[in-house]
Amino acid sequence: MRRRRDSGNSKAAAIILSILCVGIIALSLVSPASTGAVQSATGIVVVPIQKGISAFGGWLSGMTSNFRDTAELREENAALKERVDALTAQNSQLVLNEEELLRLRQLLELDEQYAEYETTGARVIARDSGNWFSTFTIDKGSRDGIKVDCNVMAGSGLVGIVTQVGPNWARVRSIIDDDSNVSAMVSTTSDTCIIAGNLQLIDKGTLSLVKLSDEGNKVHVGDKVVTSNISEKYLPDILIGYICELNNDSNNLTKSGEITPVVDFRHLQEVLVILETKDYEASTDDAAGRDKETEARQEEEEAQTEAGEQDLLAAPRAGEEAEGAGEAGEAGEAEGDGGE
Questions:
Q1: How many CA atoms lie within 13 Å of 133's alpha carbon, on the beta-carbon side?
Q2: Are the CB atoms for 232 and 182 separated by under 8 Å?
Q3: Cα(268)–Cα(327) distance, rounded to whole angstroms?
Q4: How far is CA 155 from CA 143, 170, 218, 267, in A?
């Protein structure tokens, strides 16, 4: 019913407008003088409608333009974000490449510094738990010429020594490990000492220096410490670090202190392995000293054995004497009872 009413109203309006238009046309044809009045009336009615339509059309055009500009801005913003992300990733990669290049340059300089040795570079692929690279694994092994006791370097000096080797991997114990002891010397005086690993001490960035022989008091803070030529496993003159603290021991014969290592043991990534190992031969004095120590130890063991045997022999005798004393006491008591 409602649709029929709307349809009827539309038809009525169309008929009225048609009659009005026909009437205006007829009036203009019959009386030319009335044309001005018709035009004036038409202008009064039509012009405001035209203005409204024009304004509405302009508003629609502006809205369409705004929508178009907003969509373009969104697309442009998305493209800029993608570009920023790509540039950020590229910058991060460049920073990583620059850091890696710096480390590789240091290894190259280290290789040139120890050019008398055959070396090979390797990457660290695993390490034990903790903040420090006390023991770790590298990605090269026996196939690359690496063997047990090969010296390992990084940065500006000594890292540690190879302890286990596989076909394509090797295990390294660094000089900061608690089980590490490196025979070293002060480069300026050649006085010998021991660099002892200490994972607690390395937290403040230092290592222990012990048993330093410095009779002339010529060793000072800041002196360079290198591997000693009398070391059994470490090749000579490899830089370890610099003395940062030095004190006299209680025996007034040796000194102890701390050194600052030249290697960053918290951020090891690439290392340089010396393929040559130390062929250590004990000197005559060392051998004689060891023989004397062995003889003294054997004599001490023999003396302890003899003392033990004498104690064992003395025990039965002491028992017999105790029994004899007991029997004599009983006899005395018996005599005493008889006298009463």
A1: 25
A2: no
A3: 81
A4: 25, 19, 28, 10
**CB 151, CB 183: distance < 8 Å:** no
Mean pLDDT of the chain: 77
Chain centroid, CA 206 distance in Å: 18
Which two structure tokens, joined as six digits, stand for 315? 């025990």
Helix (H) or strand (E) holding 207: strand 207-212
Cα(243)–Cα(85) distance, integer angstroms: 47
Task: Give yes or no for a contact between 182 and 151, defined as CB atoms under 8 angstroms apart.
Answer: no
pTM of the model: 0.58
Question: Can you tell me whether residue 180 is helix, strand or coil?
Answer: coil
Distance CA 121, CA 139 (A): 10
Q: With contact defined as beta carbons under 8 Å apart, do 272 and 105 qualify?
A: no
pLDDT in tens, 72-112: 778 878 887 777 777 777 666 665 566 667 777 877 888 88
Give the DSSP letter of residue 143.
G
Select from 259, 121, 135 the least CA-distant residue to 186.
259
For residue 258, how many other CB atoms are within 10 A of its CB? 21
Rounded to whole angstroms, the maximal C-alpha distance in the chain is: 191
Q: Which of 106, 145, 117 is nearest to 268 (CA)?
A: 106
User: Which residues lie closer than 8 Å to 291 by C-beta, 6 or more apart?
Assistant: none
33, two tokens: 């003088």
Question: What number is the average pLDDT over the span 204-233?
Answer: 94
Residue with token string 């020594």: 161
CATH assignment of 118-274? 2.40.10.340
d(CA 340, CA 331): 15
Q: Residues with Cβ < 8 Å from 273, sequence gap 6 or more? A: 119, 120, 121, 122, 138, 140, 146, 150, 151, 152, 153, 162, 170
How many Å apart are CA 32 and CA 72, to the nearest integer?
56
